[in-house]
Each structure stands twice: as C-alpha cells, then as structure tokens.
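User: Please predict the structure of the protein below. I'd like the answer in structure-token form so I can feed it into my own downstream comparison script.

Assistant: Understood. Taking the following sequence of 141 residues as input:
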Amino acid sequence: MAKLPTAFTTLDLQGFEIDGSRQYTTINREMVDVACAVLQKNRLGIVTRSVQAALKHIYGIGGSADTICQLLKQWRSENLAALKQGRGEKDIASAILEATDDGLLEETDIPEDYLTVMRQMAVAGYKLAYQKRIHQSVGIG
C-alpha cells in the first residue's frame, strides 16, 4: 500500500469553520483536531510535519514540534480508542477502505475471481460464527 503524501501547497478547507480574522498565538488540541481533519479530507498523511504545516496554513502559526507531537499523540490515542469502541463516524471496514484508497485502483479493477473467493470466505466465516453462537446458547461446546 502506498503511503499518503505529507506535503501540500494548498488545502481544501470547505466545510470547516475557521476564523481567519483572529490572531493566534498558541496551539491547542482543538486546532490540532481541525488540522488532522483537514489533512484527512485532503487525503494527506498525518505526521508531525504535515500537521505543523496545516496549522500554519489554517491558523498562521505552526507551533513547536514538541507541542505538536504531544497533541498529535493525544489525537491518535483518542481516535484509535473511538474506532475500537465503534464510536467513530465510520465502521472499521470503511476506515480501512479510506486508509487504503490511494486512487490507483477502482473497485471495478478487482478481478471477479478474487471477489468471489472473498464473498465465499465471508459466508463461511459468518456461518462458523453463527454455529458457534448457537452451540454456546444451547450449552454445546
């Protein structure tokens, strides 16, 4: 899987409410949250450098690498926990598809034989889980 780019010349900020008239002097967690959301929307990798550049682009202030690292660590931890608990906006399959969508392969490019095998595996896995659940509910196994 190809990694997402982390460098950019411009960002699409449509859909984000950003006060361009305000003069910012310090970076906070909310600003990092917005920067990460903007990077995700723009299909850019989220690393310290890209978050710092996004903050400069959005708010006119980049913050120190130490501050960004600390706030980014918190952001990652909370987003991972939300994803594990299913509280995120996306289910795990959607999150994986979004993370792996690099624009190089359309769904129609996937060979039908591969899709057939994947469907068969999904059915077999579901049936196995269903049988196990039934056996546990009646006290077998």
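That's the full token string. DSSP finds five helices and no strands in the chain.
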